[in-house]
């Protein structure tokens, strides 16, 4: 099916104007209460009005860690798309694919503690084919990152050799310099909005201390006094003060309570933590499948080795601990969702190991073993091997995060009970699909199961145009006597059981559907 150039919902609940799309939406959910030994379920319904601004702004994205593997790879992808480059590989000629930038402007500039220009950073990363690097070199050679914040105690000592491009001065002076950089980029590029995205080194965890970083006021005072604050938190605070969304792509606790409170006060979106790209994304699917199938997963052992700079930094214990926490928490909500399998407080044994092996570079190896209990004392063990091209998986996630965040900035809504327009909560939990350890507003459930996260995004976007949630019931295809209008590409055909004789053969040698059934017209059901 060819891609459509325009998407329009024809419904009395949706009104299109040149400025907005306004949709009426009935949100239906349930509340559950326990009375004695009885669970009582009460359906509830709330009427929403969604308004989405149609004007797409001129958006700029600034990367902290622009000269790293992720930053240089994302920049190369944007340029390869814009220049429509092609290059030879062992399996044929490749062409720069669309990366969905639309009216977004410029390459994604930013900061880095290394002074290498982006062409040299791309070559150092050793992610892209040489033929592509050669074509990109003259376009990236003039791109140089702005100086960044370097506080040695927050990253591994082995990173000191790269730190030749740093912002001098006190913490307060560094904060002001970051703010000037954001304003300068916004003005010089003629942008409407800027989003700041942390893709730099994993830092050690920052202890949350009352009076230091537990409130917005205390955090700002801590910066003025030059007390302990991480580089990533400095960037988060600067972004929030400039009204720019901040997204944390690393596992450390950048968004301490004081930063979250500041985001709430300024009504600025923040999101995190840690890009979900390879091993953890598979884990968020597989554990959901195992537990949902009634298999009680009791042991998860995850081993990784990689050779890029991320791996080198993670070879230091404090930085590894940050990554270990974000990787380990991904199964929590799935375990808690099934009290039939797991008693209160029961958790699987979950071990995460990361080793630095320079030779493999950006091509991370991930090995996982999942052991689950079956009925009558049996066990089931699954073992996986996953080769993850780390930066090639992360770069599209960075784009998706920026585009989805910008779209959320254009959405507002109200209810019949609360008619004043509001936006999404500043802690943008909608982005959890793209993060290993998704942040959620205080008191909100944290969802890690991948397809629940994706369904959340899909159904909220459907609500913005007045469409009901996707429920996959397909009742119109499950009725003995069709009484509903069939919709979609399956409206004219339906699989029936294969009869004797040969079924049509597809070009790949497969016949019929996944079960070997031929595809035929749906039989006419008798009516009385």
What does the model show?
- The chain is α/β, with parallel strands linked by helices.
- It has 3 domains: 1-55 and 449-487, 2-Layer Sandwich (Glyceraldehyde-3-phosphate dehydrogenase-like fold); 59-275 and 397-410 and 432-446, NAD(P)-binding Rossmann-like Domain (Rossmann fold); 279-391, Dihydrodipicolinate Reductase, domain 2, CATH 3.30.360.
- The strands form 5 sheets. The chain has a 5-stranded parallel beta sheet, sandwiched between helices. Strands 1-2-3-15 form a 4-stranded antiparallel beta sheet. A 4-stranded mixed beta sheet has the order 12-11-13-14.
- The chain has helices at 69-82, 118-125, 130-140, 171-188, 216-225, 231-241, 257-266, 279-292, 309-314, 317-328, 332-336, 390-409, 450-463, and strands spanning 14-16, 20-35, 38-53, 59-64, 86-89, 92-95, 110-111, 193-198, 245-248, 270-271, 296-306, 349-356, 363-373, 379-389, 411-415, 494-495, 519-520.
- Helix 1 crosses helix 12 and helix 2 (118-125) packs antiparallel against helix 3 (130-140).
- Helix content is 29%, strand content 21%.
- The chain has 13 helices and 17 strands.
Question: Unreliable segments (pLDDT under 50, ≥5 consecutive)?
Answer: 100-106, 490-507, 514-523
Q: Shape, please?
A: globular
Helical content class: 25-40%
* Assigned CATH superfamily of the largest domain: NAD(P)-binding Rossmann-like Domain
Which architecture of the largest domain does the CATH hierarchy give at level 2? Answer: 3-Layer(aba) Sandwich
* Count of individual beta strands: 17
Which fold does the CATH topology of the largest domain refer to? Rossmann fold
Distance between the termini: 39 Å
**Share of β-strand residues:** 15-25%
Main sheet specs = 5 strands, parallel
Q: What is the total number of structural domains?
A: 3
Radius of gyration: 26 Å
